[in-house]
Amino acid sequence: MVTTNRLITLSLCLNLMLALLFHPLCSAQERVGENWTVVRGDNSPGATYSTFVETPNGRWLAAGPSGQLMFSDNEGIDWDYGVITNDKGRPVFGTINDIVVHDNSLVATLVSFDRARGQTQGETPLPFVGRTQLLTSVDDGDSWTITDFPIPNALFGGAITGFPFPGVYLPKLFVAPNGDLLAYGTTAQSNGASAFFIGGAIFRQNGSSWEQVAFEKGWLQSMDQAQGDRLVASGFATVLESDDGGFWNGYSLVDANLNLNGQPLDFAEKELLNASDIAFVDNEYVIQTQEFRRSRNNPNIIVASNQRSVIFKSPDPFAPSRNWSGTEVPRIYPNWINMGTNIVSVVDAAFSSDTGVGWTQVDASVTPRAYSVGRVDSQGLVAVGSGDEVWTSGDAGQNWAKILDQNPGSNMSIRGRVGNILLATGTSQTSAFASLFHSLDNGTTWIEVGQLSDLVGSTSIGTLAIIDDRIFATVDANDRIVTSMDAGLTWESLSVPTISSQGLKPVSAAEGGRLIVPQATTSSEVFISDDNGQSWTSRPAPLEFGDEVKDGRYVGNGRIIYLVNSFASFDPRLLTSNDNGETWQFEDPFQEIDELDRVANDPETRVIDLRKLRQTDLGTLIITGVQGEVLVSQDRGQSWQVVLFLERVEEAFLDWSIGEVLESDGRLIVIAYRNSPVSSAFKVNFAYISEDDGASYRPVEIPTSESRVAFQSGVVGADGRMVISGNNGAVYISDPLATDRDQVQNFSVREGESLTIEVPRPPISGAISFSYQLLPDSATAGSDFVPTMGQLSWAEGETTPKPITIDTLDDPFNEGPEILRVEFGLADDLIVSFSYEITITDTELMFASPFNVLIVSDGLIRTSENGDSTTFGVVLSRNPSEDVTITLSVDIEGEITFQPASLVFTPGNWNLTQPITVTGLDDDQPDLNKTAQLLFTTASAGPEYDNLAPAIAYVINEDNEPRDTIFSSGFESL
Questions:
Q1: 965: exposed, middle or buried (C-beta count within 10 Å: 0-12, 13-18, 19+)?
Q2: For residues 701 and 718, what is the distance between their CA atoms, to the nearest angstrom?
Q3: Residue 123, Cα to own-chain centre: how many angstroms?
């Protein structure tokens, strides 16, 4: 990848010095739950994209529903992801169907349905009408301007000229050979269940305004360039042509002579033909048609149900004869791309045709899930399957290569915490089977321990009960639970004498370590064990057939609560024991809660699909329901109050759900998600924060890159951070309130000096020992600082801060500020807990330049062994009497190249900057960053620039080879 720095007129003379003084910098954090950061998955969205374009500057960009973007600036090697938002900061509503380059800008069309606003003529439309918005970008898609399409109605151009059809719906764009921008499609209305498309419309941009240039019988769906600069278009029962895109001529297919296998089609058949694609190839016009049918309920309505696919060809379809010859084909080949020599169709596989009739499947593995396929040059194609897979072809679609193929892993479900180890289950990135994962650094990174089928003999495990760091869990067998004493590395199976064929429900831990395991709905037995599951006895419970036992836990004072529903969400009750599991009964505290009456105002019916039961540090019990309900109890479950009911108060129609309830930093946080208005497949996530132990909540949106992510599980890490997980392999973290040790995380020191930091005791009880180590960032160990490691120890009750000293080295290079890190971790190697960042400020000149030769740059001169380039400038500071020649050389061979090799300044151009481009070379050696001296030797017939010492510009070439990794005291040492 080549990056070119902007040339700016910053002249750095001989005596310029950096004079930054040492001072500590404070870096206060917001409280836990306010900000969330992705640490796994989600940063490579697996969403479907609907269009692709190469921008004027060579960026590859795909867009799709809700404004989702993915783009690459190096021809698909690396990809970034983003979203187009409206003026409220929310993703745009609708689907981006097409993007084109017009007047060196990007123009996209965004289509959706909106509520009808009424009209001044004609009958009142259906409740929803089509809406078109135009999105424009002048910076390769980094920012966008959104405007409504200025014409809300299309005017019929036939016998009832002037009749308006509201709901302009223009999903396609086309740039004509004369540079005009065309938008085409139809008018659309909807009753909420079905969409109705009326007529086919073409609009042309005329200066800064738009004008309607065509309105035909059916929805226009395809456009192509024919002979010369002529344009052709097709749609339902319609073909059109135009000389310039401003005036269109054509006819309905019912008026054409269409022959199939030598036999003419009759009027009824022609009336139902949808010409979805048109192309001019091999000097013939080709259209792809599908034969639709009439609605069985209303013959005036045409239903898009394909009865037969036919390809029609004609050498001159706009001659008076209007002759077309048809060939039936076995399937539809959608979304034609005319490559000049052939037609390509890429949706569920890559197909190619020379004539549009005979098609060849060239690659079955190319399977984009939408129409996100586009050209990148005369013969190049890019097909975007999703944010995780991209294919390219360089020969007009005849051969394909997959250039992006990544798997973030599917749903990650965080199950709990054993000491400092977080546990999760999910599908790995390398296997389709469920696995167990560990995180040793509070959710930042995850290690696959092994497949569940190998570890526990099952593909899934139930809710985890953790007693003194020992795990107990049910599995899918009906007569056993499993236990682990090493955080899931090894498991033991424990038999339970069940009589239910439907297995066991979640294990809970009662007073004294007693294990409680209810049976499923066909049995009324609850099993208890007082010896860690080695032996079991049963106790009767009032469970009946149809009762579904959900989450449960010991809540104090000998009381145990299990959530129970009968037939999914009906008849919510509590199965309780007040004597540590000896006797059991049903309690029904929900009958008094009017908010749960949701069935025809029946006072005897309460509906809530109980999901999870949690208890706060202050003893508050919290029940969450599947539909966004949060109930709290302050009396160990005797009475309950609804404090959140998202489906009633927060846009109920968007189908809310509660994923998890967590407690940290003195606050409760409910993780909730709902559907996006665009589609139920897209989710929006929130953290509802309570500062008063669940009495009231305020929402904070959790922005995600992948709109299909819904967070459904979570845990509080060992350092108080919240860690949540969801589908697409996504894991997010929210850091806790900054403690005293976090208040000064960033420091600065001048090179060649020492810095001493007083490290506060971490907030961990007992005697503790922490390791620390200096790690390089942009600074280099051995040349910028002295590599150091050591330990800090505190006795139980000791609070005195411990000092560490960082010694920096003064080098002769002009490198600017550089950074190293001090990382701290528990000496048992389990977790890296916190780190400091040290900035070393440079004492040298930015550039060592001789008098009268100036270096012009906007910063440091850096290259890399990846081939990165930097451009800077050289200029003279005063007028020479004779021409001046500057010859360039480098002191280290094999690190950089430069262009040009020499410069010539004259008395006429002495004050005009001339550019120099330096490029890094790869030496295939892990030799760290190297600083090369670029020498400027001057020669002149005049005395001003003759025999001067060479000017020097220091160029830092960054290494790209992986360095040996050594793990020492729980830290990664490079």
A1: exposed
A2: 24
A3: 44
The size of the chain, in residues, is 974
Phi/psi region, residue 307 (left: phi>0; alpha: psi -120 to 50; beta: rest), is alpha
How remote is the C-alpha of 371 from its chain's centroid?
20
- Given CA atoms 683, 689, 690, 696 in this order, what sign does their dihedral have? negative
pLDDT of residue 845: 36
Helix, strand or coil, per DSSP, at residue 596: helix
Helix (H), strand (E) at residue 614: strand 610-615
Average pLDDT, the chain: 81
What SS3 string covers 357-411?
Answer: CCCEEEECCCCCCCCCEEECCCCCEEEEEECCEEEEECCCCCCCEEEEECCCCCC
Beta strands in 752-891 (DSSP E): 754-759, 768-776, 789-794, 802-807, 818-826, 832-841, 853-856, 862-864, 869-876, 884-890
State the residue for tokens 């310029």.
Answer: 16
Q: With respect to CATH, is domain 11-16+845-958 assigned 3.30.420.40? A: no
Distances 868 to 59, 917, 925 between C-alpha atoms, Å: 17, 10, 17
| Bond prior to 152 in cis (omega within 30° of 0) | no
pTM beyond 0.70: no
What CA–CA distance (Å, rounded) separates 826 from 848? 45
Between the CA of residue 155 and those of 109, 130, 253, what are the distances in Å?
Answer: 21, 15, 21
Reply yes or no on whether the pLDDT at 452 is more than 50. yes
What is the b/e burial string over 753-771, where b = at least 16 CB atoms within 10 angstroms of the residue's CB? eebebebbbbeeeeebebb
First to last CA, the chain: 25
Closest CA to 823 of 807, 810, 834, 808: 834
> Is residue 517 within a helix (H) or strand (E), and if so which, with residue range?
strand 515-518
Q: Considering only 268-282, 294-308, 322-336, which range has the smallest mean pLDDT?
A: 294-308
Cα–Cα distance, 734 to 721 (Å, whole number): 6
Q: What residues does 79 pair with on adjacent strands?
A: none
Written as six digits, the tokens of 574 are 């509590």
In angstroms, rounded to a whole number, what is the distance separating the alpha carbons of residues 364 and 120?
A: 52
| The CATH number of domain 740-843, selected from 2.40.50.140, 2.60.40.2030, 3.40.50.300, 2.102.10.10 | 2.60.40.2030
Q: From CA 518, how far away is CA 550, in angstroms rounded?
A: 10
| DSSP character at residue 696 | -
CA 456, 457, 458, 462 torsion-angle sign:
negative
Question: 268 with 253: CB under 8 angstroms?
Answer: no
- 901, 888 Cβ separation under 8 angstroms: yes
3-state secondary structure of 947: coil
Q: In angstroms, rounded to a whole number, what is the distance separating the alpha carbons of residues 383 and 392?
A: 6
pLDDT tens, residue by residue, 203-257 = 999 888 999 999 887 899 999 999 888 999 999 999 999 998 988 999 999 999 9
Q: Tell which residue, 591, 659, 668, 575, has the closest CA to residue 625.
A: 659
How far is Cα 573 from Cα 791, in angstroms, rounded to an integer? 54
| Gap between the Cα atoms of 241 and 640, Å rounded | 70
Under CATH, to which class is 412-734 assigned? Answer: mainly beta
Distances (CA, A) of 463 to 457, 551, 561, 730: 16, 8, 15, 20
Buried b (16+ CB within 10 A) or exposed e, 917-926: bbbbeeeeee
Q: Do domains 11-16+845-958 and 740-843 have the same CATH topology?
A: yes
Would you state the structure tokens that stand for residue 834, as one six-digit string?
A: 């916190």
CA distance 439 to 447: 6
| Beta-bridge partner residues of 903 | 886
What are the structural domain ranges in the chain? 11-16+845-958, 100-216, 412-734, 740-843
Partnered with residue 559 across adjacent β-strands are: 556
Determine the Cα–Cα distance for residues 847 and 927; give it in Å rounded to an integer. 24
